[in-house]
């Protein structure tokens, strides 16, 4: 038959935690023995950890480890006042401390079920203020219970003992609040020991005889299996009669190092001599931690992963913050990476989500602040996806197939084909860039998102176009930019939509090619003739925005005026001369020259630029009579007039000079007369 080892044998998580913390803190002192096992104590001493009875015995300023079952409040405060405290109090026990402190603050009485002399009970009582300790159901009969009392238990008390005490007290005071704080680690170890003992011919309980917990295990097993031995290790097996073929069960107290019962296990195997070995499902040393979450007491507050709770910050460490979970045996921990508020202080109450009821080492409930934010963010993202709204994102990493983006902390993938309206060669150009995305795929269960930037660009362009179309109205005159020219017209951008100005609508006159009227890039005014949003067609007219030539013809070309024009057509009866685009006048054959001509071409040819005199303007009939001959004659006449004028000027000049000629004799006369007088005295 195989040798079987109880899965719960050895250190409970609280002791293991305290030992780990102590070894880390070494060299250090422990306030009281950390563990009731002489081998473990030796190990501690070898590591530089020695037990002291009071904080005063520890070196001032040195590290002082508080054991797993805690110390009194007075000892704790004293320890803090002179040493660096390494608090290895089991979280189960810390939770009881907080319960009774709360009761104390509410003025309630506390009853502790347990041994008054046990250090753990003393630690609880020291924090409770008004407290009574009851060790058994019989003692409970004599107890006076107030109506708002709270009953808690020493963690290592038997579950049955606690139930019996609770039953008696409840009968006395129905309003008694009962918190079963018995540690399941102990209960389970004992239950397993019973079961193992019932199926074993020989039962070995490994541990220190000084350990109450080990002794209790021994008693339980011996009641069921008479051949039960309490051994401290393999060295004690010499006195044990072991025959091959026996069913052998091994268990160990909560303070027994695993190497001690492993030695026993190995020795038993040797004795069994090649008998196959069977261990319980879990390795002995790992079992207590592995199922720690299930040890939560029924009477305490229950939590589940995903639950959002308000927790109180107890301690800030390098790893994150330790928090108090209301009504729970164990503290919680929020790792730094899971903190969204990094300014938290001790005493702050914050909201966090329960992630795991076991941090993997059995020490803490793991919580996260960021999960709440992430969940809110995820809900928002889902809502946006369902409503077809865009999300703001930032490009984070280019991959072979696309771009990884970040939506406020949530990862999103944008395939390369969805990055733009065109092929994107360099995906990394989007890294670090903010962008709007539309979610095109969302898997809620896998929390996977695929998004598209292209969809946003397309929709935005469509929206812009729609807005432009909504602003375009038939008959409205708008400004546009000539984008391109074709033989049949000009395409004009009227604010995002290209409309066509047909060549016939470019000008009032004839336009052979659109380039004769407009040029690419030119801003022009156009009138919207027609709209078809479905076919995205706009008909425009530039001509309609220009004044009609006939309406101003009379004013612009008054009868008698001489203007310049271009011969555009020749007919047998005359030549048509274009004065401006859309305004042609007729030069009758008789008016083509100052000479008589047999045919118009003898005087004028298409393309000639000629000066013509306006003979008549008839806007209603859209007729203008012009004359080259009259213009020539007028101009000749004008020249003649000019010459005449010149002559006239010459005559004027002559006239102006004439008096001078007449005056000369007069002027000279006195001179002539005077001359003799002047000469007269000379002759005398
Ligand atoms: S409360 Fe339980 S887990 Fe904690 S130290 Fe005591 S026995 Fe171990």
How would you classify the helix and strand content by structural class? alpha/beta
Low-pLDDT parts are 275-299, 656-684
Q: What spatial form do the alpha-carbon principal axes imply?
A: rod-shaped
Number of helices: 15
Radius of gyration: 57 Å
Distance between the termini: 195 Å
Sheet bearing the most strands, described? Answer: 5 strands, mixed, barrel
Main-sheet strand order equals 13-14-15-17-16
Which band does the percent of strand residues land in?
A: 25-35%
The helix content, as a percent range, equals 25-40%
- Ligands bound, unique: iron/sulfur cluster
Strand element count: 32
Mean pLDDT: 84
Which features does this protein show?
32 strands, five-stranded antiparallel beta sheet, 27% strand, binds iron/sulfur cluster, disordered C terminus, 684 residues, alpha/beta
Secondary structure topology:
Blueprint: E1 3-5, H1 13-25, E2 28-31, H2 38-46, E3 49-52, E4 63-66, H3 73-82, E5 84-87, H4 91-105, E6 110-113, H5 119-128, E7 131-134, H6 137-141, E8 150-153, H7 159-172, E9 177-178, H8 184-198, E10 202-206, H9 212-224, E11 228-231, E12 248-252, H10 258-272, H11 287-290, E13 308-316, E14 320-324, E15 332-335, E16 349-356, E17 365-368, H12 370-387, E18 390-398, E19 402-407, E20 410-415, E21 434-443, E22 448-452, H13 454-471, E23 477-486, E24 489-493, E25 498-502, E26 523-532, E27 537-541, H14 549-556, E28 562-571, E29 574-580, E30 583-588, E31 609-618, E32 623-627, H15 628-683
Helix pairs in contact: 4-5, 8-9
The protein binds iron/sulfur cluster.
């Amino acid at each position: 038959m195989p040798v079987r080892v109880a899965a719960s044998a050895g250190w409970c998580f609280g002791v293991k935690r305290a030992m780990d913390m102590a070894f880390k803190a070494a060299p250090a002192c422990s306030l009281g023995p950390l563990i009731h096992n002489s081998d473990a104590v030796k190990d501690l001493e070898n590591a530089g950890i020695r037990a002291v009875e009071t904080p005063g015995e520890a070196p001032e300023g040195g590290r002082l480890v508080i054991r797993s079952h805690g110390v009194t409040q007075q000892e704790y405060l004293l320890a803090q006042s002179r040493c660096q405290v390494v608090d290895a109090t089991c979280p189960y026990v810390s939770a009881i401390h907080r319960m009774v402190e709360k009761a104390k603050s509410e003025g309630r009485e506390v009853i502790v079920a347990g041994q008054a002399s046990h250090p753990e009970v003393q630690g609880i009582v020291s924090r409770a203020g008004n407290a009574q300790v009851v060790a058994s159901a019989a003692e409970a009969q004599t107890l006076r219970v107030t109506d708002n009392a709270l009953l808690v238990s020493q963690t290592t008390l038997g579950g049955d003992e606690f139930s019996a005490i609770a039953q008696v007290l409840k009968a006395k005071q129905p309003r008694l609040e009962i918190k079963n704080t018995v540690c399941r680690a102990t209960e389970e170890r004992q239950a397993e020991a019973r079961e193992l003992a019932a199926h074993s011919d020989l039962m070995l309980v490994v541990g220190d005889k000084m350990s109450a917990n080990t002794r209790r295990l021994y008693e339980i097993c011996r009641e069921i299996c008479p051949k039960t031995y309490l051994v401290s290790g393999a060295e004690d097996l010499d006195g044990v009669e072991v025959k091959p073929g026996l069913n052998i069960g091994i268990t160990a107290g909560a303070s027994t190092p695993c190497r001690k019962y492993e030695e026993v296990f190995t020795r038993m195997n040797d004795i069994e001599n090649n008998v196959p070995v069977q261990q319980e499902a879990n390795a002995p040393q790992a079992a207590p931690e592995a199922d720690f979450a299930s040890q939560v007491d029924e009477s305490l507050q229950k939590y589940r992963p995903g639950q959002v709770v308000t927790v109180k910050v107890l301690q800030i460490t390098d790893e994150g913050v330790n928090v108090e979970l209301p009504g729970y045996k164990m503290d919680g921990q929020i790792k730094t990476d899971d903190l969204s508020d990094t300014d938290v202080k001790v005493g702050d109450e914050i909201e966090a989500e329960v992630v795991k009821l076991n941090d993997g080492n059995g020490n803490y409930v793991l919580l996260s602040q960021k999960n709440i934010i992430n969940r809110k963010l995820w809900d928002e993202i889902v809502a946006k996806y369902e409503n077809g709204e865009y999300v703001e994102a930032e490009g984070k990493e280019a991959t072979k197939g696309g771009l990884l983006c970040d939506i406020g902390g949530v990862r999103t993938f944008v395939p390369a084909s969805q990055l733009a309206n065109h092929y994107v060669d360099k995906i990394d150009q989007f890294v670090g860039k903010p962008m709007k995305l539309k979610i095109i795929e969302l898997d809620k269960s896998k929390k996977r998102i695929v998004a598209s930037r292209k969809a946003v660009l397309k929709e935005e362009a469509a929206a812009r176009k729609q807005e432009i179309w909504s602003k375009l109205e038939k008959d409205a005159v708008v400004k546009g930019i000539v984008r391109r020219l074709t033989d049949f017209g000009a395409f004009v951008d009227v604010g995002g939509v290209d409309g066509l100005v047909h060549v016939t609508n470019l000008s009032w006159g004839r336009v052979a090619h659109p380039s004769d009227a407009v040029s690419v890039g030119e801003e022009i005014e156009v009138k919207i003739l027609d709209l078809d949003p479905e076919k995205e067609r706009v008909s425009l007219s530039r001509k309609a925005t220009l004044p009609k030539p006939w309406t101003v013809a009379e004013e612009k070309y008054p009868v008698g005026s001489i203007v310049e024009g271009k011969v555009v057509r020749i007919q047998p009866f005359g030549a048509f001369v274009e004065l401006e685009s859309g305004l042609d006048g007729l030069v009758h054959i008789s008016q083509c020259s100052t000479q008589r001509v047999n045919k118009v071409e003898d005087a004028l040819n298409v393309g000639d630029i000629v000066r013509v005199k306006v003979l008549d303007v008839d806007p209603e009939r859209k007729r203008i009579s012009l004359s080259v001959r009259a213009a020539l004659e007028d101009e000749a006449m004008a020249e003649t007039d000019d010459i005449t004028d010149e002559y006239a000027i010459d005559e004027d000049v002559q006239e102006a000079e004439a008096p001078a000629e007449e005056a000369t004799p007069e002027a000279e006369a006195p001179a002539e007369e005077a001359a003799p007088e002047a000469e007269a005295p000379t002759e005398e």
